[in-house]
Write a structure and sequence with these properties.
Bound molecules: nicotinamide-adenine-dinucleotide
Largest sheet: 7 strands, parallel
Shape: globular
Number of helices: 11
Radius of gyration: 19 Å
Order of helices and strands: EHEHEHEHEHEEHEEEHEEHEHHH
Number of strands: 13
Strand content: 15-25%
């Protein structure tokens, strides 16, 4: 099949594109090669196993340049939760209007669509259970709001016309995630501090929980969704995408310390910081995906974290100061205290 991956040169896109190619599909990407995400653009372009069309997913002219695809996996997005609170217009344009064009072109081409949403649509999770796809949308960030609006657009445009699936990943981790982008990824911040021999700062008391899923598991999940779309006459399907395993932020920090090649003397420090959009609990209820036969996560949280720390150890990345600067930006705007 001929598959378009928007945002295909990003973390999840690259892994998915490589697997698709191994499985005999032809892939191409529409990607703006965003500076904040890509530092070594030439190397990252070379890693993508197909043609790359450089353009903005929210620009119709970029779509007009593309050859027709039989399936679209729509990943392109602005992804910084905290940054979305002040770069509102950009987040809305890319995440909402970009998804509108992805859905419009999927319909025009009669291609199937897998559209990446996020668990951010739920806002706060639950201490005693995972969120199900039926739970209400109560986003706490502009990022979450844009993803929620984008879902409505996919439902509206694709219902009864093409097979479409909306996927809501939890925290995706693994080798290849951006090490320079201080607006996303607590784990990249931990890696930077560990490499500098610093202690790990955990915001709050460390009991907040998250669901971390390895990027390999996500790529397999997305490909399954592409191959197992609902009938075009049906409504777009919504699926959570997490490991279903809950770990605390303290465990996240400890598993990271444990994974340092050659051992580490770093310890965990709790810092009283609360950023706008931060939540206490996140966990996916994977019952719906399981009932449909979708591939569930194979990596445990500890294994995923170790894989990320060990394979990223020698990869160039930002210094830990970059995360301090990003936090200062939030504090100055009254978005962290
Ligand atoms: N990584 C996670 O933990 C996570 C969790 C939930 C949802 N998601 C969603 O999964 C998708 C992929 O995330 P990722 O982690 O691979 O992010 P990423 O930042 O690594 O990749 C996104 C890609 O999109 C491109 N892009 C950004 N703006 C664009 C634009 N206007 N036009 C064209 N391309 C553009 C970037 O250059 C990048 O290559 C996103 O939609 C994100 O919201 C990710």
């Amino acid at each position: 099949m001929k598959v378009l991956l928007t945002g295909g040169v990003g973390f999840i896109g690259l892994k998915t594109a490589k697997k698709l190619m191994e499985q005999g599909h032809e892939v191409f990407a529409l990607d703006s090669l965003l500076k904040q995400v890509h530092q070594d653009i030439e190397a990252e372009k070379a890693a993508f196993p197909g043609e790359i069309f450089v353009g903005d997913v929210s620009d119709v002219a970029a779509w007009e340049e593309l050859p027709r695809a039989e399936a679209i996996i729509h990943l392109a997005a602005e992804t910084g939760t905290a940054q979305s609170m002040y770069e509102t217009e950009r987040y809305r344009r890319v995440n909402v209007e970009g998804t509108r064009l992805a859905a419009e072109y999927a319909v025009k081409w009669q291609a199937s669509l897998v559209s990446l949403s996020s668990r951010a649509v739920y806002g706060e999770g639950f201490a005693n259970r995972g969120t199900t796809e039926e739970d209400a949308h109560q986003p706490l960030s502009v990022y979450g709001e844009t993803k929620s609006e984008a879902e409505d657009i996919v439902r509206e445009l694709c219902h009864g016309v093409i097979g479409a699936t909306i996927v809501r990943p939890q925290n995706v981790i693994g080798p290849g995630q951006a090490l320079h982008n201080p607006y996303t990824g607590v784990l990249a911040a931990f890696l930077a501090r560990l490499r500098e021999g610093k202690n790990l700062s955990v915001y709050g008391d460390g009991t907040a929980t998250r669901d971390f899923i390895h990027v390999e598991d996500v790529a397999n999940f997305l490909i399954w969704c592409m191959n197992n779309q609902p009938e075009p006459g049906d409504s777009p399907r919504v699926l959570n995408c997490g490991s279903g395993e809950r770990i605390t932020l303290d465990q996240l920090a400890q598993f990271s310390i444990d994974a340092v090649p050659g051992g580490s003397d770093s310890v965990i420090e709790h810092v009283e910081i609360k950023r706008a959009g931060d939540i206490d609990h996140a966990l996916a209820d994977m019952s719906r995906a399981e009932a449909l036969g979708a591939p569930l996560a194979r990596w445990s949280a500890r294994e995923s974290i170790a894989d990320f720390i060990q394979k990223s150890w020698e990869v160039p990345g930002a210094k830990s100061e970059a995360w301090d600067v990003a936090l200062n930006e939030l504090t100055e705007r009254g978005l962290a205290e």
